[in-house]
Design a protein that fits this description.
Layout: E1 2-4, H1 12-20, H2 28-47, E2 52-59, E3 62-69, E4 74-79, H3 83-92, E5 97-107, E6 113-121, E7 129-133, E8 136-137, H4 141-153, E9 158-167, H5 168-177, E10 182-189, E11 191-192, E12 198-199, H6 205-210
Length: about 210
Amino acid sequence: MITILNKTHSLANQFLAELRHIDIQNDRMRFRRNLERLGEIFAFEISKKMNYVEQEVVTPLGVATVPLLEEQPVLATILRAGLPMHQGLMNYFDKADSAYISAFRKPKKSNDFEIKTEYFSTPDMADRIVIVSDPMLATGQSMVVVCKELMARFEIKELHIACVIASTEGVSHVRANLPKACLWLGAVDEELTSKAYIVPGLGDAGDLCFGEKL
């Protein structure tokens, strides 16, 4: 299943536009906040597909029956760019467990790169719903490597992937390698440069959030 937010009219498009805008990007706090807002929207949309059980809530005047989440998901993010989105997801799934993974591109002599993972800090994900967030889905290689590593460690019940902007190539790569994952995307752009940057995209999300890295 693939859900693309900008296919319908909503406030998500306003936040996407501001994330892309070269002048508005200069406000680093606003950039992070817009990623957080989209994380909240993804959380709300994903929550519609989850299971609920009716529970009684005692009010000052009586008892109300309310459908509440049957179980809490595990929220996982790829460091460092994923942190603001992760915060947005946590704002809504405020009882969820969290997982943090580092993944980076290691250049090869062939002018290509491979994906390396170094740091995994996760709860037990066995038989759990897992939501992995990362702002950009360029080639899709990092996402596939991270998710396959998680699935090798745990028997995950349900996998959701949330990204603000994806490339068509990245979407195809994820669908081919993670066919059971549900994709939640803000927008999908057609072009990918030779250096694996999405066009028009928005640039380097991590640098725009936290400053340029060495």
